[in-house]
Amino acid sequence: MTAEWELDLQKIENNEADVAAFQREIETYAKSITDELLQISITHENLPQIICPKCKSHGLIIRDKIVKCPDEVCNWVQFRNVCGVQISIADIEILLNTSKTSLIKGMKSKAGKKFDAHIVLNEDCTTSFEFAKNKSCKK
Ligand SMILES: [Zn+2]
């Protein structure tokens, strides 16, 4: 795929290919990755039925990498790998039931600094961190 792109890029440079077509190809590829992520299924059973916190009408799809509302309009999604730490299903449940996870330890910031934090569910159903020491002023 990548090699093909490089070839395409070369063609674009030589004005042989349509830039828009190339753009479309990338979009298709990005979509196929998303689909792939959704298809990776968890091997162990007993997945809890968690109702989407946003639309409150669909059961969430739980996968290794993401938890997602199946409704395309709602489109609520939570990545399960947060700053290098895999968020357990139990924590996802706690998050959605109580709007706050237990303290998640050993996450890494972009600068490479380790930190502990709770993940909190905001009123608009986005998630953010609440740090252990200086308590969040939100809410
Ligand atoms: Zn939803």
Notable traits:
single chain, 139 residues, 3 helices, binds zinc ion
What does this structure look like?
- By secondary structure, this protein is an alpha+beta fold.
- The chain has two domains: 2-39; 61-131, no CATH class.
- Helices cover 31% and strands 22% of the residues.
- The structure holds zinc ion.
Which range does the strand content fall in?
15-25%
Poorly predicted parts: none
| Number of H/I helices | 3
The main pleated sheet reads as: 3 strands, antiparallel
* Total domain units: 2
Strand tally is 8
Cα shape: extended
Distance between the termini: 46 Å
Radius of gyration: 19 Å
- Return the string of H and E elements: HHEEEEEHEEE
Helix share, percent? 25-40%
Summarize model confidence as the mean pLDDT: 84
Which helices and strands occur, and which strands form pairs?
Elements: H1 2-13, H2 19-39, E1 61-62, E2 66-68, E3 77-79, E4 81-82, E5 85-86, H3 89-98, E6 104-108, E7 114-121, E8 127-131
Zinc ion binds next to loops.
Short description:
The protein is an alpha+beta fold and 139 residues long. The protein is 31% helix and 22% strand.
